[in-house]
Specification:
117 residues, mainly beta, three-stranded antiparallel β-sheet, 9 strands, 0% helix, flat
Length: 117
């Protein structure tokens, strides 16, 4: 999990991160944060919302930006759904449990957890 604070400067920030684990080769990634833009909701920015939570079959998403991509991950970090964001997402094929949803567009990445019943 990478958490970034608001970047109030006029200069983009860059970080290099090495991810490693048992039995796998380390991977190095570079994360760049645009100047003054983050996935943090700023004053006037409507946070995206999902409901119902817990959900049985259809998850409704409000306040996402056009062109956003929605990705749903299980507790092990496996991506199970990856598609263009739309108001209704069918999660009926997911097993009962806790999931993370990421909605990403060209300027922000937002995460939220939900429970599938």
């Amino acid at each position: 999990t990478l958490t970034a604070a608001y970047n109030p400067t006029l200069v983009e920030r860059t970080a290099t991160i090495t991810v490693s684990g048992n039995g796998v080769a380390p991977q190095t990634i570079t994360v760049t944060q645009d100047a003054g833009v983050t996935g943090i909701n700023e004053k006037g920015d409507k946070p995206f919302k999902i409901f119902p939570n817990p959900v049985t079959n259809i998850l409704t998403i409000n306040n996402f930006n056009n062109g956003a991509i929605v990705s749903i991950y299980d507790v092990n970090g496996n991506m199970l759904i990856n598609e263009t964001a739309k108001e209704k997402i069918d999660v009926s094929g997911l097993a009962k449990g806790v999931y993370s949803m990421k909605i990403a567009d060209s300027k922000t990445i937002k995460m939220i957890k939900f429970i599938k019943q």
